[in-house]
Amino acid sequence: MGKVPPGFARWKGPGRSPRRAERRDSEAGAFPTGHARRDEPQDVPPEDRGCSLQRTGRVVDAAGALSTLRRELSWGALVVLLAFAALPWGPDAGSPVAMRCSRAVIVGGALRCDADAPVDVAGLCGPGHPEASRAIYGGDVVDPVALCTRGATAGLTRMAPEDLAALAQPTDVNAADGDELDGLPGIGPALAARVIEARPFADVDDLVRVRGIGPVTVERLRPRVVARPSPPP
User: Fold this and answer.
1) Domain 170-233 maps to which CATH number in 3.40.50.720, 1.10.150.320, 1.10.10.10, 3.30.460.10?
2) Distance between CA 114 and CA 125 in Å, rounded?
3) Where do the H-state alpha helices sit in the chain?
4) 99 DSSP assignment
């Protein structure tokens, strides 16, 4: 009997094919040449451990790196949470709801309150402006350049309904547009249209003339509305 080739040490003669013998050896716990058992001692030289152990080593290294990454991410998340906790979560100084004042006007993007807020066009454009006597009310938004060069139609608008509510600025039922009226409590688009049709109103109580607005609705509206005299044509 000749020399047995490597990998076929258990092939003892006819009747056992090399492949069948190798499969039986594998089932019995023997590993083909070039493969190592998972429980092989770690002090075996790498060249004797085979490719499986080399792959296992890479998995161990990857697991260690993943564990380190998780620890670093945990610390990073903690730092981010602490940074967010330190942020000022209240409204900033540039927000129209940053403070409360009796009379609030936004001029050039900045909120002005009470004595700092202009009362008329002359205060911004000078007494020689054609609309110098036109009043500027709480809740107005002023573009000074447009106001002084093209007039109140281009330079005067109103705050958004939510900003008017946050700053407690009144709505003039004799001058407000449909969107501003629609933002009032108990007033929807249909009632807003009826309010516009029923103008002018002598006072807030006069709103009961509008179909759909009764005494209860008037009381809800009272803190939020005024009825200024309509400007002359």
Assistant:
1) 1.10.150.320
2) 19
3) 18-28, 46-86, 122-125, 144-150, 152-155, 161-166, 178-182, 189-198, 215-221
4) S
Q: What is the 3-state secondary structure (H, E, C) of 177-201?
A: CHHHHHCCCCCCHHHHHHHHHHCCC
Predicted local distance difference test score (pLDDT) of residue 67: 72
pLDDT for residue 204:
96
pTM of the model: 0.56
- Cβ atoms within 10 Å of 124's Cβ, excluding its own: 19
- Between 72 and 202, the more confident residue is 202
- The CB density around residue 164, as the number of other CB atoms within 10 Å, is 22
The span from the CA of 77 to the CA of 79, in Å, is 5
Task: Name residues whose C-beta falls within 8 Å of residue 122's C-beta, 6 or more positions apart in sequence.
Answer: 129, 132, 133
pLDDT digits (tens, 9 = 90+) for 166-179: 999 999 999 999 99
Instruction: Report residue 54 CA to chain centroid gap.
Output: 48
| pLDDT one-digit tens code per residue, 180-214 | 999 999 899 999 999 999 999 999 999 999 999 99
Q: Which amino acid appears at position 155 of this protein?
A: G
Cis, bond preceding 170 (omega within 30 deg of 0): no
